[in-house]
Design a protein that fits this description.
InterPro entries: Aldolase_TIM, BATS_dom, Elp3/MiaA/NifB-like_rSAM, FeFe-hyd_HydE_rSAM, HydE/PylB-like, rSAM, rSAM_sf. Keywords: 4Fe-4S, Iron, Iron-sulfur, Metal-binding, S-adenosyl-L-methionine, Transferase. The chain is α/β, with parallel strands linked by helices. About 45% of the residues lie in helices and about 10% in strands. The chain starts with a helix and ends with a helix.
Length: about 350
């Protein structure tokens, strides 16, 4: 039985109404048949606004060197059990060219928040990728100066992914020692000013998080008007202060994906690797409740073991050419198809 007030709220959200904090928190708590109704609405919005194509974005984890000491992260500065690495610029370019040959429309260059490549080196990598492939390029290298963001944008970077992780300022400060949420948001505002397609996102299930703070996460994404939002479960990592904390759940994470689709109807939403790491069909479940992007790992196999933000990450032993047919089969199995082209935001091309 689905309550009348639940159906009414879901219908309003599906029609594009701007829900408030309490309304989002209510939807985030749904279970059973009411949760299925939420997922159905999110999937219909996805189909209407983004179509049935699933965009593939090749992920290149080019360095695990990090200056931050985030309490949840497996590559935090204080973790002495991590073998640090840095891919050479030519290796990064070669990995991107390989992703292009596999038919991917874009790549994401991701690293710890460190100085594995100096700003000019990274700009050179972006220029080389843009000159030798048709790929869109996303950077995900953390909080940097406005000048560095401008340099990379001028070099040709199309997008930047900077997850805010949590919109609760106190929780943010506890999880990211020495950093403040307002600094993170300022970086996102700079990226918007510089003309990037902006991505952010958050974790679900963090210690101390409530459905109300998840609602605040979604409202922050709406306020920032992001073109992409990555949402995944918190997974406790060994050798971190939160190693013994409870993990985020599949159901709450899927509810967050669905509510984000209803709130940001024309944004790209990945079916995250983290969801696929805690449930064998995690990515498929996300595709059924609003997601329209998958990010296959195209990092050379010899580096993958050393970029573990959380344990039991899927696809650590596979080379890029092995992931492509697997991900394609996953998408086709859900009645969807692999989208072609760079997968720019609808707002970018309209």
């Amino acid at each position: 039985m689905i309550r009348r007030e639940v159906l009414s709220l879901i219908r309003r959200a599906e029609a594009g109404a701007d829900l408030g904090r309490d309304e989002l928190a209510f939807l985030l708590s749904l279970e059973g048949e009411e949760q299925k109704a939420l997922f159905g609405a999110a999937d219909r919005v996805r189909a209407r606004t983004m179509g049935d194509g699933v965009h593939l974005r090749g992920l290149i984890e080019f360095s695990n060197i990090c200056r931050m000491d985030c309490c949840y992260c497996g590559i935090r500065r204080s973790n002495r059990h991590v073998r640090r690495y840095r891919m050479a610029p030519e290796e990064i370019v070669a990995a991107a060219q390989g992703a292009s040959r596999l038919g991917y429309g874009s790549v994401v260059l991701q690293s710890g928040e460190g100085d594995a490549l100096d700003p000019e080196e990274l700009a050179g990598v972006v220029r080389q990728i843009k000159a030798t492939t048709p790929l869109a390029v996303t950077l995900s290298v953390g909080e940097r100066t406005r000048e560095e963001y401008a340099l990379w944008r001028e070099a040709g970077a199309d997008r930047f992914l900077l997850r805010h992780e949590t919109a609760d300022p106190e929780l943010f400060a506890r999880l990211r020692p020495g950093r403040r949420l307002e600094q993170r948001v300022q970086c996102l505002l700079w990226l918007r000013e510089l003309g990037y397609q902006v991505g952010s996102g958050f974790m679900v299930g963090l210690p101390g998080q409530t459905v109300e703070t998840i609602a605040d996460d979604i409202l922050l994404l709406r306020k920032l008007n992001v073109e992409m939002a990555g949402i995944g479960p918190f997974i406790p990592a060994p050798n971190t202060p939160l190693a013994d904390a409870a993990a985020g759940t599949v159901d709450r994470t899927l509810n967050a994906v669905a509510c984000t689709r209803l709130t940001l109807q024309d944004a790209h939403l990945p079916a995250t690797t983290a969801l696929g790491s805690i449930h064998p069909r995690g990515r498929q479940l996300a595709l059924a409740c609003g997601a329209n992007v998958i990010m296959p790992n195209v990092t050379p196999g010899r580096y993958r073991d050393h970029y573990q933000l959380y344990p039991n990450k899927i696809c650590l032993r596979e080379e890029p050419e092995h992931c492509a047919p697997c991900v394609t089969a996953l998408i086709l199995g859900e009645g969807r198809f692999v989208a072609t082209g760079p997968g720019h935001s609808p707002r970018w091309t309209s």
